[in-house]
Specification:
11 helices, 2 domains, two-stranded antiparallel sheet, alpha+beta, Aminoglycoside 3'-phosphotransferase, Chain: A, domain 2, globular, 320 residues
Length: 320
């Protein structure tokens, strides 16, 4: 078999990971934004077939953190050893000898993101249970000291004002509300945070949560930051009932102070503005192939407004 130049690199990699094994095939994986991912299959001397993934962080990930690949590999070692549903890490190479940038090799897990689950209630309960499991990892443990502990400033955290996300909503007063209290007082012990725990980063297989992927945004801090991000994403993808079911299940599993959740909700709202940008139509276009043509720019805006309104109502209730 004549190998392409790219497959020759993978053949070299196979010899590093599993000497005397042979490369069978490679194929690109779709959906990676922060990293380029390529799956490959090898056969060991005993005839056993194994599938792995080569994960190469992109420039946007490496620019703020040159050690992103090393950090992710180390974190996956920790999360996998603690029984979290994460891919097993196999190999890390910072040298750039085979591929031009640092990369890691991780387990290939069968599954796919789910945006139209048959049982939405069970879906949200599984999500809540696993997020709670992640947050039970003590953020003060020395083995996690390599993760970010610094609290970013307001401008760094939320970016510039963007009136194009929702022209009918002035986000200035959201920013004023947060600026008046930022940084938020630390009411909870620091925990491990995934940083982007949304349905697109969860793999499902036969109705069961199979893996939580894409840990490059992991950090240490208040678990409410993660909770708020998940709440908003579940709202605009699945609706209010799903968000509430997820939240109530999570709160039944984690005994922490929820006083600042409305502020973190507002922070999650501004995060969505930063990520989605002005072109919500392009953002919504991601979902029809997953059976969700009902998700549109308009429905996202409507849920976004509802999310902000409920957060501000809760804050007003606290003041009353």
């Amino acid at each position: 078999m004549i190998l392409s130049p790219e497959d020759q690199k993978f053949a070299q990699l196979v010899q590093k990971i599993a000497p005397q094994s042979k490369l069978l095939r490679t194929w690109p994986l779709e959906g990676g934004i922060s990293a380029t991912m390529t799956a490959f299959e090898l056969e060991d001397p005993d005839g056993q077939i194994k599938r792995l993934i080569l994960r190469r962080p992109g420039e946007a990930t490496l620019k703020p953190n040159l050690h992103a690949a090393a950090d992710e590999f180390k974190l996956l070692q920790i999360t996998h050893s603690r029984g979290l549903a994460t891919p097993r890490p196999y190999y890390f190479d910072p040298s750039g000898r085979i591929f031009p940038s640092p990369y890691l090799v991780i387990e290939y897990i069968e599954g796919r993101p789910e945006f139209a689950p048959a049982d939405l209630t069970d879906f949200t309960l599984q999500l809540a249970a696993h997020l709670a499991k992640i947050h039970r990892v003590d953020g003060s443990t020395p083995e996690l000291s390599f993760l970010r502990r610094r609290v970013p400033g307001f401008a760094e955290q939320f970016g510039p004002h963007s009136s194009t996300f929702d022209p009918g909503l002035d986000e200035g007063w959201i920013r004023e509300t947060l600026a008046a209290v930022w940084p938020l007082p630390q009411r909870n012990a620091p925990a491990l945070r995934h940083g982007d725990f949304w349905p697109g980063n969860i793999l499902w297989w036969d109705g069961q949560l199979a893996a939580v992927i894409d840990w490059e945004d992991a950090s240490l801090g208040d678990p409410l930051a993660d909770l708020a991000i998940s709440r908003l994403d579940l709202l605009w993808i699945f609706g209010c009932e799903a968000m509430d079911s997820f939240t109530h299940r999570y709160q039944s599993l984690i005994d922490i102070d929820y006083t600042n959740l409305p502020y973190w909700d507002l922070a999650a709202a501004l995060r969505l503005v930063r990520l989605a940008g002005a072109d919500l139509d392009a953002w919504a276009a991601f979902f029809p192939p997953f059976g969700r043509p009902d998700i549109t720019a308009q429905t996202i805006r409507e849920h976004y407004r509802f999310f902000i309104t409920q957060a501000l109502e809760k804050l007003e209730g606290h003041k009353a």
